[in-house]
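Page 47, continued from p. 46.
Same chain as before, 90 aa.
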Amino acid sequence: MEVKTYLPFKLFFIGFILMVLGIIVIMLASLYFATTKGEAEVSGGVLFIFGFIPIGFAFGPHSEYIMVFLIILALVVMVLSFLLRRSAKT
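Result:
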């Protein structure tokens, strides 16, 4: 009896593992800089896309650059989802 794993499950699992690894790398980097230099500045951002409504948050000294990046990322994701949805209907 052979168990088949489907591609969507594999992609979800790979994405989840990449997110966890990214969080671990960010935590280790901030701990390293905080212990070696005594001070650390943290900047970050989050992008949520519900349907076609993007919601972005950024914080820290470089929040302006992060927000510009998040806006560009939101536009790219919305255009790609529109194109993929359109090609799936045909």
